[in-house]
Design goal:
The protein has 8 helices and 7 strands; from the N terminus they run H-H-H-E-H-E-H-E-H-E-H-E-H-E-E. Helix 4 (62-73) links the parallel strand 1 and strand 2 (79-84). It is globular and about 40 Å long. The protein has helices spanning 4-7, 15-26, 34-48, 62-73, 87-100, 113-119, 137-144, 165-172, and strands at 52-56, 79-84, 106-110, 125-130, 148-157, 177-182, 188-193. Helices cover 41% and strands 23% of the residues. Helix 2 runs antiparallel to helix 4 (62-73). It has one domain: Vaccinia Virus protein VP39 (Rossmann fold, 3-Layer(aba) Sandwich). Bound molecules: S-adenosylmethionine. Residues 31-33, 57, 59, 62-63, 83-86, 89, 112-114, 131-133, 136 line the site of S-adenosylmethionine (SAM).
């Protein structure tokens, strides 16, 4: 098995990293982004240096912890809001965030992601990561675009999955964003708001 530590050079051990590796070992069967895409997400978060992150689709917190580890290593203390509709999964994520020592900068919202985004008033984000039910991607894109800052980054997981390709093609042709389709695993779509 490959772990994120084998794909990115980490020079020192820390608590957050230990939890990430533990999640990779214990939860290899779960639909997380996995270490390859985690390494890519880590890289774009490091380059983007976001201060306010929104994630739709928490599961047990693996991808959120990857983004927080990237910020920590880059010397940034972001605020991360992550939305999960399953209470059981959200509770598990909260426990993992506690163990990783990041509870003070993470807000876990237990709700339907699209309902939550519709309720947001006067808040904007500079990085949005979307990994919910694939049929919801077109609506998530339209709802998230207004709350993404200019030059902010929005990333969709599974962009090359058969049911998602048509959406990815539409976004690549959308002039409101500049986008790249990254052929890593089943794909990641990276959009920058113009
Ligand atoms: C693929 S998993 C997320 C994996 C996570 N991003 C990671 O890599 O660690 C998708 C998660 O999104 C949740 N989900 C799916 N549709 C959702 C929605 N409309 N609102 C909130 N959560 C949703 C599911 O319950 C599931 O836990």
């Amino acid at each position: 098995m490959t772990y994120i530590t084998q794909l990115i050079s980490f020079h020192e051990e820390d608590h957050l990293l230990s939890i990430l590796i533990e999640l990779e070992k214990e939860e290899a069967y779960l639909p997380t982004i996995g270490p390859m895409k985690a390494a890519f997400l880590f890289t774009i978060v490091t380059i983007t240096r976001p201060k306010r992150i929104l994630e739709l689709g928490t599961l047990h917190g693996y991808s959120a912890l990857v983004m927080l580890k990237a910020c920590k290593d880059a010397g940034i203390r972001p605020e991360l809001t992550t939305v999960e509709m399953s209470e059981v999964r959200a509770r598990r994520a909260i426990a993992n965030f506690k163990r990783a020592g990041v509870c003070d900068i993470v807000r876990v919202v237990i709700d339907d992601a699209l309902t939550y985004v519709r309720s947001i008033k006067g808040e904007t984000f500079d990085f949005i990561f979307i990994d919910i039910s694939k049929g919801e991607y077109p609506e998530a894109f339209e709802l998230c675009l207004p709350i993404l800052k200019k030059h902010g980054v929005m990333v969709f997981d599974n962009a090359l999955m058969p049911g998602v390709r048509r959406f990815s093609r539409a976004v690549l042709n959308d002039t409101r964003v500049t986008s790249s389709l990254i052929k890593i695993g089943d794909g990641m779509l990276v959009c920058i708001k113009r």
